[in-house]
Amino acid sequence: MRIIFLGSGGGRNVFATQIRGTGGFIIDNGKTYIHVDPGEGALVRAKMYNIDIRKVRYILVSHVHLDHANDVNAVIDAITLGGIKKRGILLASESVLKETPEFGYPIVRRNYLNYLDHYEVLREYEDENLKVKSIRTKHTDPYTLGMKIEVNDKTIGYTADTRYFPELAKFFENVDVLIANTLYPFGFTSNKHLSLDDAIRLAKLAKPKMLILTHFGKRIIKEGPAKMAEIIEKRTNVRTIAARDGLIVNLEF
Ligand SMILES: [Zn+2]
Question: Where is the Metallo-beta-lactamase domain positioned along the sequence (predicted)?
Answer without folding.
Answer: 13-215
